[in-house]
Design goal:
The complex is a heterodimer of chains A (529) and B (162).
Chain A: H1 2-14, H2 17-35, H3 41-48, H4 57-82, H5 91-102, H6 106-139, H7 144-162, H8 166-180, E1 183-184, E2 191-192, H9 206-224, H10 248-270, H11 276-290, H12 302-318, H13 320-326, H14 332-343, H15 352-355, H16 357-388, H17 393-412, H18 415-434, H19 438-461, H20 468-471, H21 473-499, H22 516-525
Antiparallel strand pairs in A: 1-2
Chain B: H1 4-11, H2 16-36, H3 51-73, H4 87-107, H5 109-124, H6 129-150
Chain lengths: 529, 162
Amino acid sequence: MDVFANLAAGIAGVLSPINLLLLASGVLVGMIVGVMPGLGPSAGLAILLPLTFGLDPVGAIVMLAAVYYGAMYGGTITSVLINTPGESATVASTFDGYPLAKQGRAAPALVIAAVASFVAGTIGAVLISVAAPVTAGVAASFGPPELFMLVILGLLTLIVVIGKKRLLGIISVLIGFALATVGIDIGGGQQRYTFGSTELINGIDFIPVAIGVFGVGEILWNLYCGAHRERLGYFDLKRASRRFWPTGADWVESRWSMLRGSVLGFFVGATPGAGATVASLMSYSMEKSVSKRPERFGKGAMAGLAGPEAANNAASAGAMVPLLTLGIPGSASTAVLLGGFLMWGLQPGPLLMQDEPDFAWTLIGSMYLGNVMLLLVNIFCIPAFAKVAKVRFQILAPVVIVLCVLGTFAVNGSIVEVGIMLGCGVLGFFMRRFGLSPAALVIALVLGPLAEETLRQSLIISEGSFGVFVDRPVSLALLCFLPVLCLLPIAVKLWRRRVSPAAVPVEAQPTEPGGDHEALDTAEHETNR
Amino acid sequence: MTALTPVTRRRWRITPLTAFLLVLLAVFGGYAQMAMELEWRTEAGRIGPGFFPRLIGLAGMVLCAAAVVRNVLRPDTEEAAPASRHRGALLLVVAAQALVLFTLVPLGAVLTCVAFLFLVLELLDRTRPLLNLAVSVLVPLGLYLLFNVALGAGLPQGPLPF
């Protein structure tokens, strides 16, 4: 009963005019960010973070969460219309979405994708309402050793899903950890790596790094790839057309795909380190394997669009579970959200739902209303958002850089932080260029202080003995899971070898050629982007 | 004998990734060196401020060295190079960003951003100077209003009265 009462209070909390306005504007801005070429949810969230300063914490987080799931859907529009996924999680949406657009069915495809997002978002919100208090209840008994093991597990999962370039993934994590050690040592008060700068005594703030790595880094990478020279093929949409709405057969074909994708996506998304990209690709493979007509996949099967789209959005809701209850971000976007939480003095973790129940339940409540708003905005504004996709990159790129510069300066009025942001932008470019993982860096930067603090506390508890990780049952169980996680890639490789003919259509790949495995690996690797 | 030489040369080629990893190796080396100057353990027997940095620095050096060796032996496996590369545009935009960093405070947010936007827009597309000018003026003014007036952020003014 507590869950229902809390949820009702949370929904009531969102129903204030200002929060509804923030929710609506968050969904709209998120959609625009998702549709814009070269900007994904994590970049959009990082850039927009400074714009929420004047708001109260609840309103700000409600708005940022709306930006998050709005951007997740926005990426689908470009996947379907121009075969260019706005971010890695919508790579799977290109496999059948673009062939549908080529058949003149772009509008029905986008309507089905919008409904799939709504169904998945709502199922995700229901599941998070149940899972979050349970997980928080379990996690409340966790001590420093268990939290340390969880941090390590989360980072290890992230590295495992990176794909082929795990070594570079671990190096990315270490760069993030190294940046996190700058500033005063929380244990003894000694300065580390400050080089005498007073600006660095409090450490390197998360916001300039996130804005630089995700925002400026992405823009520089797209410039290097020649996005300013590209002329993209584009399918136009007219809502007055009779062919705008899906047919009965489309609904019949995609209804179970949506449900399967929603449940699968939620649980994959709730796993720290895994995320929407993995969920959507798994959903695509699953839909193809259960379909009676798998040969239609890659040629315009509505189920091949509805399943991954549902999985991708449910995973976004699922990723909120470890964020809210353990304080561990499962993806780059939730790492930025965590940065926002910390900025407003809220510490996500097992005690958040006890100490700040109004905040936590208002956020969960906003997901229900946000999904309704997202559906309405999607269906009635699809043609308008499709036009946003036409904004030329040569205009977008410098505007985004200016927004990043002013946004970073606005946080603390510090020109040093602007320098750090621009430096991290260049670092983000090189990381993309050479296959390192910007997401792993940012997540490690957020989790670094937590890892150091929990390790320190664990060793204080045990008087310096590392046996504390074996003596406690939960910590031991988590420790035993580490080798399982390390062996997972080998198991997945064997599994892929068995199901490879049913994986991903070669002709629909938006990335490099090279067969099914390479498409999956590339998309997994794109998780970091 | 002569046929073997080019094969050997190709196998040991230093790629841009190798160079990048060598830079990272040097950075981690410097980081680890500084970590060695910090205490590993405190006098009370607790882990000191150098504990975590030493682990990070040493692990970073080992992994970067391993990645360098792997890349030198198999140079074609690690590159994520795009089909077309636009180094000129990239370098000019990075240089323009550096100028922004040094002019933001003395010139103020509006003037700096107007100049940066016009420069980069002209660099990327010279066919629409009027559109570029309009974007260069309107976007900084809009952002100034948003940050300074709506959010009260206090952007640098420079010589302008606002």
